[in-house]
Amino acid sequence: MASHANQARALSFDTVATQYAATRPDYPSALFDAVEELAGRPLAGADVLDCGAGTGIATRLMRERGAHVVALEPGAGMAAGLRAAEPEIPLVRGEGNRLPFAADRFDVITYAQAWHWTDPARSVPEALRVLRPHGVLALWWNQADVRVPWVAAEDARLAPFTRNYPATVAELLVSFPVHVVTREIPWSRRITVEEHTRYLATHSHFAVMDPVERAELLDMNRTALARIFPEGELDEPYLCGLTVVRSATAHT
Q1: Distances (CA, A) of 251 to 88, 156, 165, 177, 179
Q2: What is the C-alpha separation between 75 and 98, in angstroms, rounded?
Q3: Which of 50, 102, 126, 196 is deepest in the core (most CB within 10 A)?
Q4: 132-184 pLDDT per residue, tens
């Protein structure tokens, strides 16, 4: 991990693992279509390492597409949730800065909502070491689509208390011998205001917050949303940002 504070925030998900599994959004099929296109191969039959797998949201979706997935997760609580939900998926405790695998082991390495918890100076060389020739590293994040007015208003309300995930990571990769391609996939899900509030509470900045302060902040935001959505349901819009990385030395 990049720092002790960063590590503490990364492991804070253990305290909300059950709620995380229940409320976090998954990922659209178009995301995995894009991963396959940019990797130049289907996920079906591929050896995939899902780093920072959490409770297995992306792990499960890739397995459903036929991938042979190994999940890597540092947190005890998140790993327990993954093991309970997906007992047939191999699970290894560890993290991306020190991959506990031999060289040339995987066709695809993925970080779903997780690469920002690593130190790129360590996690990128480790990924390139463990990838097979012509393999790819795929990084993605669900980002709230702030082009939608209610999302922009919520973002402004919560901004002083939150940490945003990187919309792009290309600038962090310029010092490595890699080729980088990015995509952006819009999608949404229909949920209730209460489900949205419970989802927000699973983010690390809320998980480490004083419980009273967290409850007050989320209640304030819930009240604001209830005025906009009196029927209690909303469309939660996302832009799923994808970055696919391939070693420059592997190109022919």
Answers
A1: 35, 43, 30, 11, 9
A2: 15
A3: 50
A4: 999 999 999 999 999 999 999 999 999 888 765 554 577 788 889 999 999 99
Residue reference for tokens 């997906």: 86
Domain assignment present for 138 = yes
Per-residue pLDDT tens over the stretch 126-143:
999 999 999 999 999 999
Judge whether 155 lies within some domain: no
Token pair listed for 52: 């920072």
Residue 231 lies in a domain: no
Within the chain, where are the H helices? 4-11, 17-23, 29-39, 57-64, 76-85, 120-130, 149-158, 193-200, 204-207, 211-228
* CATH code (residue 77): 3.40.50.150
Top-confidence residue, 116 or 237: 237
Please, which residues bridge with residue 109 across strands? Answer: 49, 137
Q: Which domain holds residue 9?
A: 4-144+166-188+238-250
Number of domains in the chain: 1
* pLDDT value at residue 131: 98
State how far the Cα of 44 lies from the Cα of 252, in Å rounded to an integer: 24
d(CA 179, CA 181): 7
CA dist., res. 72 & res. 39, Å (int): 21
The 10s digit of each residue's pLDDT in 42-64 is 999 999 999 999 999 999 999 99
Q: Is residue 226 part of a domain?
A: no
Helix (H, G, I), strand (E, B) or coil at 228: helix
Question: Tell me, what DSSP letter sits at residue 205?
Answer: H
Q: How far apart are CA 128 and CA 4, in angstroms?
A: 25
Tokens for 166? 């990187």
